[in-house]
Amino acid sequence: MKAGQYVYPFAQGDKSMKSLLGGKGANLAEMARIGLPVPPGFIITTEACNQYLGRNEGLWPELKSEILENLQQLELEVGRSFGGERPLLISVRSGAVVSMPGMMDTVLNLGLNQTTVNYLADEAGNRRFALDCYRRFIQMFANVVLQVGHHLFENILTEARQRKNVRTDSELNEADLEKITAQFLDLVRRETDGEFPEDPQEQLFLAVEAVFNSWNTNRAVVYRKANRIPDTLGTAVNIQTMVFGNLGEDSGTGVAFTRNPSTGEAKLYGEYLLNAQGEDVVAGIRNPHPLSELKGDMPEIYDQFLQICNKLEEHYREMQDIEFTIEKGKLYMLQTRTGKRTAPAAVRIAVDMVGEGLISRKEVLQRIEPDQLEQLLHRRIDPECNDRYIARGLPASPGAASGKVVFDADKAQEMAQNDEKVLLVRPETTPDDIHGIIAAQGILTSRGGMTSHAAVVARGMGKPCVSGCEDLQIDFVKGLFTIKGKDYKEGTVISIDGTTGRVFLGVVPMIEPEFTDEFRKLLSWADEVRRLKVRANADTPEDARLAVELGAQGIGLCRTEHMFMAADRIPVVQKMILASDLKEREAALCELQPMQQSDFEGIFKEMAGYPVTVRLLDPPLHEFLPDREELLLEVDKLRREGSDSSLLHEKEKLLHKVRLLSEYNPMLGHRGCRLGLVYPEIYKMQVRAIFLALFKLLDEGMPEEKLQPEIMIPLVGHREEMARMKKLVEITAEDMFAGKGKKLTYMVGTMIELPRACLVADQLAEVASFFSFGTNDLTQTTLGYSRDDSESKFLPYYLQNKIILINPFAEVDREGVGKLVEIAIKRGRSTRANLKLGICGEHGGNPASIEFFNSIGLDYVSCSPYRLPIARLSAAKAALQG
Amino acid sequence: MKAGQYVYPFAQGDKSMKSLLGGKGANLAEMARIGLPVPPGFIITTEACNQYLGRNEGLWPELKSEILENLQQLELEVGRSFGGERPLLISVRSGAVVSMPGMMDTVLNLGLNQTTVNYLADEAGNRRFALDCYRRFIQMFANVVLQVGHHLFENILTEARQRKNVRTDSELNEADLEKITAQFLDLVRRETDGEFPEDPQEQLFLAVEAVFNSWNTNRAVVYRKANRIPDTLGTAVNIQTMVFGNLGEDSGTGVAFTRNPSTGEAKLYGEYLLNAQGEDVVAGIRNPHPLSELKGDMPEIYDQFLQICNKLEEHYREMQDIEFTIEKGKLYMLQTRTGKRTAPAAVRIAVDMVGEGLISRKEVLQRIEPDQLEQLLHRRIDPECNDRYIARGLPASPGAASGKVVFDADKAQEMAQNDEKVLLVRPETTPDDIHGIIAAQGILTSRGGMTSHAAVVARGMGKPCVSGCEDLQIDFVKGLFTIKGKDYKEGTVISIDGTTGRVFLGVVPMIEPEFTDEFRKLLSWADEVRRLKVRANADTPEDARLAVELGAQGIGLCRTEHMFMAADRIPVVQKMILASDLKEREAALCELQPMQQSDFEGIFKEMAGYPVTVRLLDPPLHEFLPDREELLLEVDKLRREGSDSSLLHEKEKLLHKVRLLSEYNPMLGHRGCRLGLVYPEIYKMQVRAIFLALFKLLDEGMPEEKLQPEIMIPLVGHREEMARMKKLVEITAEDMFAGKGKKLTYMVGTMIELPRACLVADQLAEVASFFSFGTNDLTQTTLGYSRDDSESKFLPYYLQNKIILINPFAEVDREGVGKLVEIAIKRGRSTRANLKLGICGEHGGNPASIEFFNSIGLDYVSCSPYRLPIARLSAAKAALQG
Predict the structure, then answer these.
(1) Alpha-carbon distance A397 to A441, whole Å?
(2) CB contact under 8 A, A759 and B819
(3) Cβ proximity of B695 and B805 under 8 Å
(4) Candidate from B717, B793, B817 with C-beta closest to A784
(5) Residue of A133, A673, A840, A863 with catalytic role
(6) In this predicted model, what pLDDT tens digit does every residue of A234-248 receive, in sequence order?
């Protein structure tokens, strides 16, 4: 770039200059550079735009001169004159760095006026054509540059058609168009209190200013906010010689993808219309033809186009989205850009291109957007389906399901046993609802966040769940639910999409997940290059099996509390909690132990050869007790009735305990190792169950080296907590080893989920053999955001209003949480060089977070099984970037 | 110290060697060194103790030899023989570095056996005396060394007295004592399956071992845990020649303080008994005489003792606690140590000693324990009073009060109007109870922690409060409250002490606070040396006035929400919260504005010339709404009755809102600047109220430079939050300045209470002019401790079991929270060199925390008004240490 240069002829640009010339301009220049037939033109840079917006004084003289110089060059090149006898007509288009709706799009045929329209008529030998171009120009220019309402022009056209009693504009004749043109100019005069500009230079400068100004229209600003595009980029302006697809049957226009954007099939895909301009294709009055038919209409052009498409794909090494025009038997390329595609197509195209030798495996991995692949992994509601949308909640567990609404877990179970598909719809769920959750296709709750009981259990079971749907109110008495003032009966069929949080009425079209061979191939390439290991968060043998299938190299988080939640266990767990002394509690724990043991057996069996990190009990005990409000009303009722005093007494005792255990801020309460310290018998039972399971598998012939237990102590903040809990594990283990006459290898480590733990990580690493960062809770404590509350309260507001740009629960907050993780790694390794480091928060399945975790040197990430493919790809991408 | 030297004669020690010789031993050596009459002896070091405990093999030969060498020296020095004809008798005493109950105390008369008792009898010319010494020795030795129960010996003595029909042991004659001695030896034989050791060397070694072993008795371990004394210190053993106060009327024993330990008066204070040993004084059978009477009994000894006391005070430059014995007209000093004293005495002694030129002001400030002074600032229940103690809760607001128990705020108000003293006793309080709190002498709640509504409001009003008293259950229906199974009627008089959390039955003796001239003088000296400024947390004009009286140099935290809590305001606040749109909300805010304004007027007036930091609204809005459970029952009742549908509708709406606003973890919820961002109209109203108050004061003639408003934005975690809130303040202010035609000076800063804020402090300091560390919340988030929950759940267990050593809400956690504060200071100053830094958490009134805050360079600490004197002293102490 020359200093002070604000205008570039196509010949001076190339595809590397996107930030200066915008995406469209850079690609036009590139096509010209590699010898493709592009109508000549030039580009006014994004810097000119920023200058213009900063000055706020209109186009300045030097810029105008530079534009005019380039215009003169263009006149020379094409042998035409702007405003002269062989009139140069141009298109003026905006061209941002990233394609952006909401900005001024296009003015075509600029340079026409009452004089040049006659020259054009003479030259084309077609006055109707010239008049049609003129009226289109007036309409577009007046609309996008002078802000005259589009409908006003349409009214005039409609009137003309009605007068003639015809259906389409193409049926209007020269005289009609003469009249319409005059009416258009009158309209502009009335609406703008001025004449439509006759001077082509004035037209051009006004159009350029309009493009610049469109950068700051409300819609453009909103779009940039939503898509996190910096306001400082600015837009370029593309000025290009007009070519016409509507000059007869030897002319035409079309669009094409170099491969099928839905399936990825390696075959040209597109459509065209003869004797038409681009806007005619869009208008939908005539049906465009499939591109393959062009071969019959214009065989040479078709061959040329095929060659060009191949050349573009080879050149860009990427599937292209192309616009072209044929003017009197000559092909012109008007645009090329990377084509958008569905997830299955993205995978197939990538794998095919590697097969074709077009790109390398590494390039594929760098290019693919792992997040896009989520849709390959879960059933989802067709994104095109919007008309039956009724409400939105939180996307608590991915997947989609339809079923009859049921308010009650017992009823859900009963109906499911009769092969009815049901959705369990509740204000919130509690452990008492487990059998209903199991029976239902999916869960919808009106309260609760991403970490509510419903959400956690549903994710654990791989069932779709929409939680915290505040639009929904349930009236149990009347058997109704209300959404936005409208009542629906229990039993109404609805559909939910747990990936998006959307709720629909009735059964809606669903798209099934596709786990293709190409996808598997892609993942295997990812596995070859990634440094980060990938583990799964899995709490059951079934999850473990799925995890291994999806490529897990271990379990990074096995939450033992989920084993407590099963319907047959909850009563025992409650007995344990309500125990009035240690003896009673130990008796209940004795009952639980074989249940836990059998879960562990299943999990360790599935994970043979891989490490399994078992987290000892974490949630506060009140999570296992009944809902306080319901209990309160029940006690109140029993008291009023005064009927069954022993039942009342029992319920009163339960309410007392629920109250006693209830916490103001359970997130910061009596949970994690704080339970293990105050009730060591619980953790001891869990440790015994783990080792009993291991011994059982050994007895059954499992080779010892295939068992790699890692016992994880949650919520540690002080060295002493970790030291005592490690001691408890060791004493319990040694005791069992003595009994069995055999020692097993195991590790004891901690979950890092408190800021304090990060700050004293050097002390913790003295006693912990591994750290697993629980970034969910670490985010809650570091930012002071209760996940359950913030996602239903201020966080959406924060994101919408750009107070923060990224949801810290979706992508790790690098400046806060990330900084603490870095501090912890540094300090932890200072006292234990071979400290094993992983992360088991939900960020473990988020691509941007994985990139960060790779860069700071973690050993592995752990995520829910269905996110494993995404994690594997993200880890590969991160390795290649690093 | 010589390498390998484990025994030190007094002549080789001095007071600087406490850690090696123990406190008692070092002081004995020191007294000997400065020429005071001390019975000769030697000390076995703490290192010997640690060696012994580490080896676990008994006393080793080298140590025994060293002891015997020193014993021989002692024999030479006093001209006596251990076990020989002119028998050397010794006392063996433990002597830890810090005086510690629970360890072996003393064995007297060691060296006596069936032979030497006769030598002693001959030498003293008094066989009864010798026999009495002997039976005392057997009893003490057998008890503390051989673990024979004390009561077994007492039984024999009682039997003997009964046989003779006498009241005291001194009435027993030689024959009685002969028999008793024999019975004692028999008893030992039976209880220990062995003979009482006759060999004095064996006696000595056994006694030394017993002292060493007593370091690890259960009681000693528990005491060390409770008092945070390291287990590694070990104890020394003091071996000293016996002197006898019971050799006739020219002998005696006594204790003395060099000044009055209760009042601090500079006058010798103590008591003595003639012809007695120390244990006789303790036994309380004979009443000791005031020391002044010794002047009549033994004028020369008295003068000598006075001189020694003066010498000791001059030498130690501190009030001394002394033990002495007179043996046949010769005075011996047995112990000296720093005397314990009451808080008023401590202040008076310190100030007097400065007046006497004994110590410097700086020394006084370094020596005083600021925490001890708390009792000078609040009324408290006499610590001696224990017999009417019935329950304990959390010490939620200091001070003490008595009154009739009332369960209902209305009734409390009514009774108070009839001049009855009441205590409001509730499960929890809500804003609806405010008039009851105002009317009551104090508040007692069965639920809720240190930051519960009751606690916060009570502290704000300076009223005593005990919260979270879980032993207490209230039965509203029966009009009873139950404590530990015992029922009490409403109306029962009880007393509470909010400094200790204790609850008593009836009216109990109280000690009024004493704010003496000496105390004021001490504080003025502190002000001269401290670097840290001291501010108060004050929310009302009354608090502000008190703060200035107690030395505040500004308000560090003015919580505007307390202004919302008043009975006349709560309805308006609720109207604001329940507003269905912005217009309704703004109308309610309009009503609130003049109320807030008048508070601000009062506060700024009181604080003329000092900065006032006003924190904009912080707590989640649901804190201002009624209790959810009560409302639920009410709605349920109305529904069942089906009577008044408009009332039901209103209550249902309220319940819906309460539910909608309710949060799982309010601590991490929609509060602080998150309110200000989502409801900017609330903060705007508050800012307007501040500036209107300032303009009003200006109009009334207040000089402008006396107004120093600092507007504080709470709970900031991201730069953008601070930037937007600052903008809101600025726009609101500029608007008002424009209206008034005058600009005022003000600052906008932030409260740092989230880990993230510390980590991005450099970014925050770009927009914030000051940081005030809210270490309460920073502790909650950094450690993941909900204050309300942890203090009633795991924290007491953690402290008792030494999992953590310090309550992080009482003293700042240096390794976690402290580290974050340091990070924040460093980063904050990196972008704003003159950043004003303070702390306004409750740690601002804690001496150890103040020392830390001084060391890391804060500008000021802010605490509740009543802690200001403590903060001033602590700041001075910190400055002197720094």
Answers:
(1) 12
(2) yes
(3) no
(4) B717
(5) A840
(6) 999 999 999 999 888
